[in-house]
Structures are given as structure tokens and as C-alpha cells.
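hey all, quick one before standup. I had two proteins in the batch that finished overnight and I want to keep them in one place so we stop losing track of which output belongs to which input. First protein below, input sequence then C-alpha cells straight from the run.
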Amino acid sequence: MSTRTSRELSAPGAALASRSADDSRSVRRNRRKVRRGWTATPYLFLLPYLVLFVGFVLIPAIYGFYISLHDWDYLLPHKPWVGFRNYTDLFKSNSRDGAAFWQSMRATGLFVVFSVPFLVACPLGIALMLNRAFPGRTFFRAVFFAPYVLGVAVVGVLFRFALDPNIGLVNFYLHKIGIHRAIPWTTDTPWVWISLVAMTVWWTLGFNAVIYLAGLQDIPQEIYEAARVDGASSWDSFRYVTLPGLRPVLAFVFTVTLLASANMFGQAFLVTQGGPGTSTRTAIMYITQTSFQQYRQGAAAAMSYILAVALILLSMLNFWVLRRRSS
């Protein structure tokens, strides 16, 4: 009696356990199907970018590193293997490129230090003004962004004639207001740095201002209203509401501006030709001269990778500092 009762009682439990096992297996099969379906879809959308990235970034980067390990002249059939000599020579002061390359890196660093603060702060101030409602706001937004659509050749030629010490418009109008000394905007330091920074700020300010405007419009207005109710001043609202709300945008703008300034070439090439002497010859200018004037592509490739590593480290440091402040 007890045995039959236990069997009768155990039958529904066994059926329930069997049904639960079947359900769990079905769920696992469905999950695997869904997982297989979703793993392919993102890569299909990424495929065009991956093809371009591999074809125009990854393969050239690997091939450029291969070139840097040779005494490479594309006009000659023989390109001897030199290993890492092109890299080690850059750290020897008595080598052909050691002193000159690091002098160009110093010029690049000076331009970054002089230009980045203005390119980060000035567009932020303009964005704060253009974010307010006033007549003609759209017109002024277009006016500030308009120079950015010009090519570097147009901007370089424009400022070369405007800043020419002898026939330039700037010195002409300064003479009209009583400043009779011809300022050497493009031929002497520190005026050459003032010229390069001023033209770069005028040219690229609009892009950063547009990025800031997009970030400002994402900050909820209710936060500003709550701050005003609590008695916060304009400076308090800017410090405790605007800046924290713009932190990701600031990180993006600072990093992009840092990389763009470190790769400055056209302005110095067109306006100062690297002068006076070689004081404004940036790293990109020296790499270009080494590659296309001296036909030493191996050494130029090594310099490019040294510059790339330096920029990667600076970008990582920037993100680390901003993330630490945010935390």
C-alpha cells in the first residue's frame, strides 16, 4: 500500500521534473539561436568601416613600421635592413637626425602649449554666448563656424599676405593708428608664434564652439532653475552645473585639439616656412622634409612612430586625469 502510494505520488513529481528539464533545454537552445543571430548582425554593420580601417589604417601602419626597419629610398631598388637603427639614432645627439628631430618636437610642443588653452577656452566662451536667445543668433553661429570650412592653403596664403612685415595689411593699419614700427609677424620670435596661434584659433575656433553648443543643449534647464532658486550666482552655475555637464565634451574637445595642434603643418609651412631659422619647424614638417626632400623614408617612418607614441601617451594621460577628476 505504501509502495503504490509512493509511486503514485512520485509520478507527478517526475513528470514535473522532466517538463522543467525540457523547458530549460528549450530556453538554452533559444538563447543560443538568439546569440548566434545577434553576433553576426553588428559585424555586418561594421563591415564597411572594418574594410576601410584595415585597408587604409591597419595595413599602412604595419607597412610603415616595416619601412622604418630599412634604409628605405623608394627610388632605389635595394633597401637594406637596418633593424631599429633608425629609432636608436634619434636618441643620439651626434647622429644625423637626433638633434634636429627633437628640436622639431620642441617646436611642436611649444605650439601645443600656446594654442590648446585658447582653442579650448575661447570656443567655450563663444558657445556660452551663442547658447542664449537673442536676435541674429543663427547668423552669428554661421559667422563663427564659416572659417573652418576653408582649406589650410587658403588660410595660410591669406595670413601670409595679411601679416607680411613689409606689405601686410596688419602693419599697414597699425601704421595708420600711429604704430610706425613694422612688427615682424612672420620673421622673428615671439611674433611668429603669435601669428601661428592667432590664425589657428581664428580658423578652427568654430568647430569647437559647435561641439560645445551641442553639449550645452544637453544640460537640462531645470538644473539651472534649481540653482537660481537656491541663490547661485552666474559663476556658481557655470562652475557647478555647466562644467560638470560638459565634462565628456571637454575631454573630447581637449583630446581632439591636442592631437590636431601636435600635427600642425600647413600653417607653419605656408606662413613662416619653419623660420626664423628652424624655430617653427614642427615635427610633421621635419618628417616631410626627411621623406620627400632627402628621400629617407625609413628614418621618416621611425620619426612618425615616435611622434605617434608620444601622442598616444598624452591622450591616455588626458583621459586618466579627467576620469580621476570625475570620480
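OK second protein, same deal, sequence then C-alpha cells:
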Amino acid sequence: MADEERLTRRIFVKGTAAALTASLIVKPSFGASNAGSLEEKGPGDGEQVPRRPLGKTGVQISALGVGGYHLGSIKNEKESNELVARALDAGIDFFDCAWEYHDGISEERLGAALKGRRDKAFLMTKVCTHGRSKDVAMKQLEESLRRLQTDHLDLWQIHEVVYYNDPDLIFAPNGAAEALLAAKQQGKVRFIGFTGHKNPAIHLKMLSHDFPFDAVQMPLNALDATFKSFEQQVLPEAIKRGIAVLGMKSLGGSGEIASHGALTAQDGLRYAMSLPVATTVSGMDSLGVLEQNLQVARGFKPLTTEAMQSLRESARMFAADGRYELFKTTTKYDGKVGREQHHYPPTEKLPV
């Protein structure tokens, strides 16, 4: 999922006053000759976050979603409760999470924050079998439901399909794909999908099984358009199949796109939200970050084709080798449980 780390949070929260109120244009130092075609900053507090169709499900969700990983990074539960409440009040109803985030703390935080308002939220979490059996998946589902204090999920997705043999393991007899169908038949989940961030070819292999996925989550940002592009290769295929696309990593996973000057943080989010996606999931671990995102998301209107191309061109020099999309080129963003199941060393044992 889209998971902007400490550096990105400093960009949003500790930036200059000008950065916080800027009119969301490409940095002039990178020659955005069409900068004037980009829209001005978002409207005021009176406007809600727009809603979009979730593929062909007939359901609509908010165009901006809250990333669950960062809820587990917040200092205490009171703050995470406040963030979720503020997001709901602003019209954000899509909440992302995963069974393995912070060893279950993220799901527990989200469940507590939604208590009494569960009916206002579109709740998604992910199963983290990483190649293990249907039985493991169903056990994780029960644990997720308990942590989230709910009797059903709106969307249950297979997490982190990033290894080249993952599709074979998922669709093997008694694999995770069978768990998705069973959970849906039992009424414990409404919709099903999968996520991943490594290579478009893996996503395409998943889709080639013609499985009845309702949603698919993938990294979508202005640099992705140039390098191992999910936007160019997977997004059109998902749309053709009527599968809802959930965008993530709008700033490169740890904010590299903004911190290295490819785009401003605001432009990065604007680009991602302007793609034909159901929602863009953003990691937010403070009210300050949420408010900065809301400056973009309230009353959001997609950028023009020309403005999108201008952003891609401004970022192209940073994009060609994947240096700021490390989730594609390294194992840095591959989760602990997946690494263990695929016999990779933990991150702390990787060479510098």
C-alpha cells in the first residue's frame, strides 16, 4: 500500500508556509512549461472528498483512502481514533489495512476507531498467507474480523503478490484463491481482490487466471508511467475487465518522489488521483498529514491530459532506472512474513 514514511511526513507537516498553500504546480526548477495548466489548490473545508465507483460492483467509495499501516505508527490510540474520525467527517470512507501490519496493531487500532461508526466505513484488509494454504487464510480472516470488531469485511485482498511464483501458489489447489471464494460465499466478505508492488508482469499473470476479482491494488505515480509501468500495462487491463483499481505509493513508498525534487508532495497526490482509479490510498499518521491530503482531495477534479503529461515529463529524469521506486527494484518494501515464506533474509541482515 501506499506507505509514505517519516521523510514524507516531514514534507507535509514541516514544510514552509508557502509549501502548505502552494497552488500545486510542478517545481519551476524542473522546467514545467505547462505549469499554468495545472489546477489551483483545493476548495475549503465545506467540500467533501468526491466518491467514485468501485469497478462494476455498484458501490461507490471515497477517492482518497486512509492507509492502515500508518495507523499502527501513531503514538497512541487516542490520536489514531481522532484521525479516523476526522477522515470520516471529511468524507473519506475507504480504510486500508492488512493482517500483518505492526503484528496486528493496525487492525486493532482501526477496529477501535470505527467502533460505533462501522456502517460509515468501507473496510478493507488483506490476507497474508504468502503462498500458504486456504486454511491459513481462513484463520487469518477470523483474526482480522476479531481485531477489526466486525462480522464482515467490505473488501478482502491477497496481500503483497510480489514474488514471481506467487500466482502459482495462490491458484494451486487449496490455495488462497479458494479462501477468497469461500469467504465471499459465507458472507464474511463482500468483495475480493489482490495487491502487489513489484512488477506489472506478476499482476498480469494474476489477471490471466480470469478469477472473479472485484479489485486490484497497485503502485501508481508520475514516475511509474516511465519505469516498469503499472499505469501503462496493468491499469488498462483491469479497467477492461471491470475490476476496480486502487492506487498506492503516490510518492514512491517513503516519499522519495517529493524529497528528491521530482514533484511536490501535492502534485504527486494530484497525479495519482487523476488516474482512472476508484481510490488512492495514502499513508497518514497525523492530523497534519491528513489535512494536507484534504487540501488536495476536497472537491477534487482530475488534472487535464496536458497537465498530466507535464508532470510525467518533469519527473522523467528521475524515473528511468527506478531509483525512487525501490519497491520495484529491491526487497526493501517486501514484508517480513512474505520474506520468511520465500526464504529471504530479514531486512536488517541485508548488505548495506
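Flagging for whoever picks this up: Confidence is low (pLDDT under 50) at residues 1-43. The first strand starts at residue 51 and ends at 53.
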